[in-house]
Amino acid sequence: LLNQLREITGSTDVRILQQALQVSNGDLGEAVAFLTDRSSEAPQQNEATYYQTAQTGNDRHVNVGSQARANVIDLTGDDKEDLQRAIALSLEESSRTFQETGITDEEQAISRVLEASIAENKGSLTSTHMEVWSDPPNPHDRKRQENCPVGLKNVGNTCWFSAVIQSLFHLLEFQRLVLQYSPPANTQDLLCNQKEPRNLPFMQELRCLFSLMVGSKRRYVDPSRAVEILKGAFKSTDSQQQDVSEFSHKLLDWLEDAFQMKAEEEREGEQPKNPMVELFYGHFVAVGVLEGKKFENTETFGQYPLQVNGYKDLHESLEAAMIEGDIESLHSEKPGVSGQEHWFAELPPVLTFELSRFQFNQVLGRPEKIHNKLEFPAVLYLDRYLNRNRDITRVKRREMRRLKEHLLLLQQRLERYMSYGSGPKRCPLADVLEYTVEFASSQPILSSPSRAVDATGTQPGGTAAPPQPALRQGSPNSTEGPLSAPFPQQRVPVHKPLTQSRVLPNPLGQPAPRFITEEELRVLEGCLQRWRSEVEKDTRELQGYISRIHTTMELMYSDTTLMQVPYRLHAVLVHEGQASAGHYWAYIFSPQLQHWLKFNDVSVTKSTWEELVRDSFGGYRNASAYCLMYVDDKKPFLVQEKFDKETGQMLSGLDKLPADLKEYVKEDNRLFEKELREWDMLQAHRAAVEKLASAMAGTSTDHTVPCAPTACRQESEYMEQGSHAGNQEHWREDTERAVSQAAAQQEQHGPEGLLNAAIKLEYGRLLWLAQQDTSPENDPRLLYVMVYLIKNQAPKTILERTLLTQFADRDLSFNEQCKNIMKVAQEKLHSIRPEEVNIEEYETWHRDYHNFRETTVFLMIGLELFQKESYVEALMYLIYSYQYNKKLLSRGPYRGHDKELIAHYRRECLLRLNEHAAALFQSGEEPELSDGMTIMNELVVPCLPLLLANEEQAEERDMAAVEDIRNRWCSYLGQEMEPKLQETLTDFLPKLLDCSVETRSFRDPPRLPSLSTLELRERFSRVLTSLRQTSAKER
C-alpha cells in the first residue's frame, strides 16, 4: 500500500504517507484525499522547494532549488552583462532539459496548462456525456477473421479494462489457469466469510469472457458483465476513466483470493500453493543501514514501480529504484546515516514494471502526466540485480560512478572548446581562430569606407550611412588615436564560391584591417593556424575519450556471466492523452505469429517494433507506456500452447475449453450464426424487391425483338436510372462504327461474319484504350465497362458475354444491317449454356463496376461541394467515397480511384471544418457556439478514427492532420474565457483526445442523382481539372 500511495501521489516522505494510511485505515482513495486536503491547507511553498526532485538518492537528480540560489542573477540594475548571462543560463537550462527528457520546456508548459485546465473545470461540470460506440448493423462486419485474435468492445470509457485483460489473456499460462478454474464447493459459506464477496462472481465472468475470446466467431466480444462487477469496487463514477494501476492491483488481488480459496479447499492440512502468487510475485532482499545499524531482510513484491523523471532508459530507472538513500552509507558505521539496496532473490515468471507516468502535484492539488522519454529493450537481462551477483554488481557500479565523474569532467572541458566566449552568443574556438585568419587576410575593396558615401552622408541607395569605423593605430591614413571600438561580436558571412551563388560586391567592402604589413600578417597567420590545429587536435582527443567511455559504459554489463537471466518483453500498455483524459491500448508479442499485435478495443492489427517504440517510449504525440510486462525467456510454457497428450496435436480453439465453457461458446456462436442468416435473408429479400420494382419500371411494350434477360439485368445494374438513350448513346455510336468498319473490310456480308469482325474491331479499340496511361480526369473506365474489365483482368468468358450484350442492344437498329447483327448477337446470348459462363461471376463483375460508378459519383459530388466551400455537405460524400474506394482497391489496384487523391480532400475538408468550428466557438455567441460544437461532435470527431485506422498503420499526413485538429483546440487552454466556453471546452476535449478506433455509425449515405455516362464523365473531368489547376501545390 505504501508503494502504491507513493506512486499515485509522487510523494517520497514515508512519514507523511504512513500517517495518511493510518488515518484512512488502509483505504487508498481516502489516503489520497487526506494528502490533497493537507496540501491545500499547507502554506504556499516557495518555488525552490516546489521544484526539488523526489528521488534524492539518485545521482542523476539535482536539487534544483539549491542550484537556483547559487545561480541567482540580479536583473534589477542596468548592467547589460548580467542580462546576457541570464539569457545564456536560461538557454543552457532549456538545452539540458531537452537532452534529458526529449521534449522542450514549451511543450512541457503547454502540457501542464492543458492538464491544469481540464482538471480545474472537469469537477465543475454537472453532467458528462459518455460516448459508447455502436455495433455495425451488418453482422458480417463483426465476423471474426480466421486466426485473428478477438477484440473487446469499449462499453463506455473501458479501454483501460481492454488493455489489461488482453495482456493477461495472451499470457497463455494465465489463460489456462483462469479457464480451468472451478469454484469451491462451499461457495456460499466462503462468500459470507470473505471481506470482498465479488471476487468469485468476477472470476466466473472472467472465465466466460476468456472462453469467448478463445472460441468466438465474433470479431470482438462484449465485456460488460465483468466490467460492471469490477466497477463496483471503485468509488469513482462510471463516467470517469479508471486508474489502471488501481485496477491492476484490484484485479490481481481478487484473482489471488479466488485461487487461495480453491487451494485451501484442495489441500487441507498442508500449506496451499497459490498459482497467482507463484506466477506474478517474487522476493527481494533489502540490505542496508538504518541510523548506523546494518540490517538485511526479505520482502515480497508484485508489480514493481519505477520512476520516469530524470532517466533515459529502463536500466537507469531500475538501478535508481534498487537503491534508497546514499549508497556510500551502506558501508559506513557512522551513526545517523541510512540507506538500503534491493537485490532480487527470486524473480517471478511474469515481471511487471509500473512506470510512474502520472504524478500528483501537491501544490496545485491535481494529477499531471509525465511525458518524458524512457527507452526499454525487447530483451532485459536481470543478472546485475540478483542477490547472488551482489558483489560483482557493486564493483561495476563503483566503476560506473567513476566513469560518469570522469565523463562529466571531459564533457565540461569539451564544452569550453565548443562554446567559446563570455557573452550569450558563443561558437567553437576553432571557428573563432579561423574567422580571425579570414579577417586578417581580407583586402578591403575601397581604400576608405568614406569613398562609398557621398557628401550628404548617404549611400548610393539613399539610406543613411553607418558610423565609420575607427582607424587602426599605425595606419598611414589614420588621424585618430588608439583603437577604441571593441572587436565586433558578429562576423560577416564569407563568400564561398562553391556553395553560394556570386552576388554583386558590397560597395562598403567586407570588414578588413585598415592597414597590416606583410610581416604582421605572416606572423599572425602562423600563430592562428598553429593554435587552430592544436585546438582541433585537443577537440578530437576529447571526443575520442568521451566516445570510448560511452562504449565502456554500454558494455559494462555485457559479460556472459551477467547475461544468463533473460526476460522477454511480452506486453506494453500505452496511454495517450493527459492525466484527466486519454485513451489506452496494448502492444502484445505473438510467439506463434512472430510479430507484434496492437489491441485497440475492438481493433486487432499487426504492428511492428518501430510503431511500438514510437508510441511507447514517450515524447511523441503525448503517448507513452505506463506498464511493461516481461516474461522469463527460459520458461516458454508461459506464452506457448499445450499439446494433447494422446494425439500430440497443439490444443487450440474450443479444444482448449472445459466442457461447461465449450457449451457456452457454442451457444453464443449459434446465436451469431442465426443473426448472420437472418441478415442474409433480409438482404436477399430487399434485393428481390428492388429487382422486381426495377423490372416492372423497365417493362417495354415493344415485343418484336426479345431482349436477353441477362443483358437487361446487367444494364440496370450499373446504368443508373437515367435516360436509357442518354446512357447508351456513346455505346451505340461506337457499336455502329465497328459494324460499318467490319462491313467495309468483309467481302461476304453475312450477319454472323459481320458480328465476329465487328466484335474483333471493337475489342481491339477497347484494349488499346485500356493500355493507355491516362490522367484521372480522362479515365476511360467511366465510359466503357469493357475497359474496366480488361484493366482488372476479367476472364475471357466475361469479356465475350459483355461484348455480345453490347451488340445485342435493342436500340442498335438504325438500318437493316445493324438490326440483323443485333438479332444474331441475341441468339448467341440465348444459346450460351450455364457451364460455359458462370452467371454469378458475370453479375459479380458488373456489380463491381456498378460500385465503381457509385464511388465515382460520391467522389465527384464531394469534390464539387468542396470547390464551392460547402464543407459540411462535402464531408459525407468524401467519407463514403473513401470507404467504398478502399473496399474496391482491396480486390485490385485498378478497381477504384487513386486513394491519395480522395484522402487528400477528405483530410482538407476535415481541417477546414475544424477551423470553421473553432472560429464559431471563439465567437462565444449563440447560435454560433452550438453550431461549432455540432460540427465537431457530429462530423469531425467521428471521422478522426477513420484517419487513424488504415490497414497497417495510419498515414503520416492523416496523423499530422489529427494532431493539428487536437492542437487547435488545446491552444484555447490557459486562455481567459467565459465560464460557459470553459465548460464547453472541458466537456469536449476528452472526446477529441479519445482515439478509439471503433467508429460510431454514420447516417445513411446521401442519395445519388441519376446521371448518364457522358454526364458523369464530363462533370468528373471538369471538377478534377479545376481543382488540379487551383491547388497544384497542395497535391
TrEMBL record:
Composition bias, Low complexity: 455-465
A Pfam family the protein falls into: UBA_8
A GO cellular component annotation in the UniProt record: cytosol
Stretches with biased composition (Basic and acidic residues): 727-737
Catalyzed reactions per annotation: Thiol-dependent hydrolysis of ester, thioester, amide, peptide and isopeptide bonds formed by the C-terminal Gly of ubiquitin (a 76-residue protein attached to proteins as an intracellular targeting signal)
Signal peptide: none
USP domain sequence ranges: 150-633
Annotated GO MF terms: cysteine-type deubiquitinase activity
Subcellular location: Nucleus
Keywords tagged on the record: Hydrolase, Isopeptide bond, Nucleus, Phosphoprotein, Protease, Thiol protease, Ubl conjugation, Ubl conjugation pathway
EC number: 3.4.19.12
GO biological-process terms attached to the record: protein deubiquitination; proteolysis
Sequence segments annotated as region (Disordered): 448-490, 719-750
SUPFAM superfamilies in alphabetical order: Cysteine proteinases, UBA-like
Entry-linked InterPro entries: Papain-like_cys_pep_sf, Peptidase_C19, Peptidase_C19_UCH, UBA-like_sf, UBA_8, UIM_dom, USP, USP25/28_UIM
Protein name: ubiquitinyl hydrolase 1
Gene name in the database record: USP25
